[in-house]
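In the design runs reported in the main text, the only information available to the sequence generator was the tokenized backbone. The following block is the verbatim input for one such run; it is reproduced so that readers can re-run the procedure and compare outputs position by position.
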């Protein structure tokens, strides 16, 4: 891995940088080779098409003031003072965007939420939030993807399509690579696509089992009952799941024969209302399978540092999801899962927005509340949100010009290295200074 390079020294040279992390999907592939010419990514090697498009679409940063207050240029210190005053005055500020920054910056963001008695959104989406709730309720037997690479011989994809959503997961971790106990790679593995519709993944599966639309919970429950040897009515099973009892008996027998099985599951592939109970049912099945063989569950999570946000909020508050600091002790905020819901409720009176652009991403009737409250934006580029912010900080770009730590969905921490230098401070530096101002006042 090369160190950060100053583009001003050799403006017309094409630089090739190895081991760059792609953050487009939850795979967080850390082996990408990136070619940069005049501060613009011009080619990639090893990235999939989706990842390559993500790198090539990045716009080189342009020179802008380090900070603006009400649209007028200001120094960093002036911006920090104004931002601290906004957060001190607010009764319930929103702190959002943790999944778009490093673990180090996330920790400061949570400290700020705590000091300002605000509410912090600790998950990337409502899907991730519901999935976490389901997993928390029953616990998860899980494994790193390195372990899958070395051991998994039965790979079950549960109503998901990793070939489209996480294109290199099979190649890097779960299907193709040779591992210690699966030396022949793909030839040593059985891929089963279990779901309610055919997709790209089912087209390469060894077995495809298709059930009725949105019957994931029922299928997992029947498989669980079969494991426990509970007698079942074949007609009722067929009516409820759309699969014959014989097929499910065969499927559970295959699962039991695994030396090391895994269920890969993309929570965002379900209806939002189903995710929590489907996740619970699948996790209960995996737990039961461990009475007869080794089996684990592996979520196919979202990109950037969404897994890190969840972990940091849990370390620092003992809660996950949206955490509210307005009471004496932090509390989970069950009815406000997302920024969208919080803004709809108009339950906050200021906002600190880290690398997010709600004015571009949400409907006007949702984000318009931000027009009535003071906002602080941290962003590497000018966005609709940063342009209308009370205080806008210009930061170095996450994923391009900052170092730090990010987490993959399997809980493995990856070191993020800058591929290009920046004259702007990182999110971590800005948030650390803001946090110091707020906590100093409290002390
Ligand atoms: S699989 Fe995902 S993380 Fe890997 S290169 Fe493709 S988009 Fe990027």
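Verbatim output:
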């Amino acid at each position: 891995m090369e160190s950060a390079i100053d583009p001003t020294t050799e403006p017309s040279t094409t630089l090739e940088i190895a081991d760059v992390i792609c953050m487009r999907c939850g795979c967080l592939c850390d082996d990408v080779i990136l070619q940069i010419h005049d501060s613009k990514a011009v080619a990639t090697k090893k990235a999939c098409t989706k990842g390559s498009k993500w790198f090539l679409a990045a716009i080189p940063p342009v020179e802008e003031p380090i900070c603006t207050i009400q649209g007028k240029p200001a120094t960093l210190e002036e911006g920090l003072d104004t931002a601290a005053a906004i957060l001190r005055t607010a009764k319930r500020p929103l702190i959002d965007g943790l999944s778009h920054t490093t673990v180090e910056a996330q920790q400061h963001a949570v400290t700020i939420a705590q000091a300002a008695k605000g509410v912090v959104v600790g998950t990337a989406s409502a899907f991730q939030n519901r999935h976490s709730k389901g997993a928390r309720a029953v616990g998860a037997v899980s494994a790193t993807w390195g372990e899958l690479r070395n051991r998994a011989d039965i790979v079950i994809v549960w109503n998901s399509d990793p070939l489209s959503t996480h294109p290199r997961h099979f190649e890097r971790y779960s299907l193709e690579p040779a591992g210690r106990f699966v030396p022949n790679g793909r030839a040593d593995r059985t891929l089963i696509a279990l779901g309610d519709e055919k997709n790209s993944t089912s087209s390469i599966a060894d077995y495809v089992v298709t059930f009725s639309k949105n019957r994931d919970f029922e299928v997992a429950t029947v498989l669980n009952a079969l494991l426990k040897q509970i007698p079942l009515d074949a007609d009722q099973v067929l009516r409820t799941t759309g699969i014959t009892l014989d097929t499910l008996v065969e499927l559970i027998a295959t699962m039991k024969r695994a030396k090391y099985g895994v269920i890969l599951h993309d929570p965002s592939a379900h209806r939002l209302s189903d995710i929590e109970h489907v996740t619970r049912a699948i996790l209960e099945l995996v737990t039961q399978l461990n009475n007869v063989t080794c089996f684990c569950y592996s979520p196919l999570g979202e990109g950037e540092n969404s897994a890190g946000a969840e972990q940091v909020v849990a370390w620092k508050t003992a809660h996950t999801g949206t955490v509210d600091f307005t009471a004496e002790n932090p509390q989970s905020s069950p009815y406000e899962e997302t920024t969208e819901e919080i803004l709809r409720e108009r339950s906050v009176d200021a906002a600190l927005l880290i690398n997010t652009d709600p004015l571009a991403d949400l409907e006007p009737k949702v984000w318009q509340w931000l027009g009535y409250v003071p906002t602080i934006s941290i962003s590497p580029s000018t966005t609709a949100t940063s342009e209308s912010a009370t205080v806008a900080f210009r930061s170095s770009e996450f994923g391009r010009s900052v170092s730090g730590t990010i987490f993959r969905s399997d809980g493995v921490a990856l070191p993020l290295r800058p591929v290009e230098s920046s004259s702007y401070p990182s999110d971590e530096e800005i948030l650390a200074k803001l946090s110091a101002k707020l906590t100093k006042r409290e002390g």
